Automatic annotation (TrEMBL):
Spans through the membrane: 20-46, 275-301, 322-349, 374-393
Record-level GO BP terms: lipoprotein localization to outer membrane
MacB-like periplasmic core domain segment(s): 25-248
NADP found in the keyword field: no
Protein's organism: Algoriphagus sanaruensis
Gene Ontology cellular-component terms listed: plasma membrane protein complex
Family in the record: Belongs to the ABC-4 integral membrane protein family. LolC/E subfamily.
Subcellular location: Cell membrane
Protein name per the record: ABC transporter permease
InterPro entries per record: ABC3_permease_C, Lipoprotein-release_system, MacB_PCD
Superkingdom, taxonomy of origin: Bacteria
Length: 408
């Protein structure tokens, strides 16, 4: 053991003559411990919320989504679809036609989002999170059915048990050169049977009506055009590698987005909030570490004679500084270890028992989700080390300037 570590350890463990220094050291350890535990817990909550958002979107959105870079639709052909399906790692390709439309059910109306999908839509593992009740099919060509968001069903007062009840869907036709006196010529309409409700996330629940592709194609007059293609990747394939392969096959005219890129703004917002919360708690940790500064300053005053003796025996200023820097490090390290243990315990208890609830009735989770990320622990450790060095440097420098001639 180095002499500086030995002396710093003795100072750390020994009972100080001035009880105030001991109190400051204990307060320093408690402050660092509480701040570290708060950082671990809060960062874990943000990680859990980020995972929850991803899982909710994944139960409705595709793993990969192909869209046109310009315009809202593009032409497709059977051969082109087969070409995409032949890409290694692609398991399912779902054709999508999506647009806004007016929904009417027994006089109740709202503007919703109609999403026409091919028959393999539910084969992609949709609605794995949240609630889903009713028929898992989209009806037949003669009697098309719809899977409706719970919010849409609530606003339209839809009852799945009613016989022969239909949702009327209205879509405006393309404007013509000559105006027609018949208002029926201004829009297309068709009826679809409500078959099921889903509840995943409010953004989807309050907007979407999922219908068969042929129904949407006829109503919206899209023909061979599609607004998107949704791709499910094979279980043994990497989403990133399949995404790059599709970009090479499709070229610059199409974008291929993964789940995070489809909701990049929301994911970025969560990460930004997490960053600012981290800065705020780090600032609180810095304030708590001021006690380290005062504790070491008082210790330097108390140990002036010891320092003078060390210097008279040949100790240099650098050695004295290292003693006090290590003393500050021991205080911070003790607090950090206690804080990490406490933080781990809080996160484990929240994960196992759901101690803190969301306070709302949720279809997915009742308590705040949590997940430990070891990269967060690295940043917490870097913050503790940096703050400790700043808090300890000034007292260490003062201690190194003790004059042995005047103090002995």
């Amino acid at each position: 053991m180095e002499i500086t570590s030995f002396i710093a350890g003795r100072y750390f463990r020994s009972k100080k003559k001035r009880n105030f220094i001991t109190v400051l050291s204990i307060i320093s350890i408690i402050g660092v411990a509480v701040s570290t535990a708060a950082l671990v817990a809060v960062m874990s909550v943000f990680n859990g919320l980020e995972d929850l958002i991803r899982s909710l979107f994944a139960s409705f959105d595709a793993e990969l989504k192909i869209e046109a870079v310009q315009g809202k639709s593009f032409e497709v052909s059977p051969d082109w679809i087969v070409k995409i399906q032949s890409v290694e790692g692609v398991e399912i390709v779902t054709e999508v036609i999506e647009d806004n439309a007016l929904l009417d059910y027994r006089g109740n109306q709202m503007v919703g989002r109609i999403k026409g999908v091919s028959e393999n839509f539910l084969d992609q593992g949709r609605f794995s999170k949240g609630y889903f009740w009713g028929d898992t099919t989209l009806g037949t060509a003669e009697r098309p059915g719809a899977i409706i968001g719970r919010g849409v069903g609530f606003l339209l007062s839809i009852n799945l048990d009613e016989i022969n009840s239909v949702v009327r869907v209205y879509y405006p036709k393309a404007p013509r050169s000559a105006a027609s006196l018949d208002p029926n010529q201004l829009y297309a309409s068709a009826s679809v049977e409500p078959r099921a409700f889903f509840s995943v996330e409010q953004q989807f629940d309050n907007q979407y009506l999922i219908v068969p592709l042929d129904f949407a194609k006829g109503l919206l007059n899209y023909g061979n055009r599609r607004t998107a293609l949704e791709v499910k990747v094979s279980d043994n394939a990497s989403i990133g590698s399949v995404q790059e392969s599709l970009k090479e096959v499709l070229g610059d005219q199409f974008s291929v987005k993964n789940a995070d890129e489809q909701h990049a703004t929301l994911i970025r917002t969560v990460k930004l909030e997490k960053f600012f919360v981290f800065l705020t708690l780090t600032f609180i940790l810095a304030i708590a570490s001021f006690n380290i500064f005062f504790s070491l300053s008082m210790l330097a005053i108390e140990k002036k004679k010891d320092i003078a003796i060390l210097k008279s025996m040949g100790a240099r200023d650098q050695m004295v500084r290292m003693i006090f820097l290590k003393q500050g490090g021991m205080i911070a390290f003790s607090g950090a270890i206690i804080g990490l243990i406490l933080g781990f315990a809080l996160v484990w208890a929240q994960d196992q028992f759901g101690l803190v609830s969301l306070g709302i009735s949720s279809a997915v989770v009742d308590a705040y989700p949590v997940r430990l990320d070891y990269l967060d622990l690295v940043w917490i450790a870097v913050s503790v080390i940096t703050i400790t060095l700043f808090a300890s440097w000034r007292p260490a420098w003062i201690a190194s300037k003790v004059n042995p001639i005047t103090e002995i």
